[in-house]
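ugh ok fine here u go
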Amino acid sequence: MTLTGMPPHTVKILTDRDVGARKSGRQPGSIERLQDDSHLRLHCSVFVHAYLKAREVAEPFYDSRPFVRALRTLEARSPEHGISADLFFYALQQYQEGVLALERCLSCGAHYLRITQLKDAKRKLEGDCFICTYRFRQPGRTASLTGKELIALALKQPG
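structure:
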């Protein structure tokens, strides 16, 4: 709540808005959903990283501009991400409570969210950079590229 700079009741309303809604058997604002969906973790990690960077220069502490700036940064990088602001509030709340940690991968250098408390995990994600293992679809290809392949392609291209 202190990370968002908003009153506690506002953050609670925003994070608990769709508690009753279900998607794929998981609640939208649940750590299990973040465990199962690398797409959500990818966007939440970009958001949390952008938020923390924006928070470094924001004064006073209760200012809500860093949240808006981080949301705009994410929308500029991925305009059709389709993730509600509620999930970003939830990710910030979990980051503050220590359930999520922002780590940096040693092999690719990307920032990613590490889930410190796994619940009913379908697969083991502890210490695993999902950026390296995330699979990106490319038009015209039958197989998707892994994050490591995309990083290698980006490093080969000049400029």
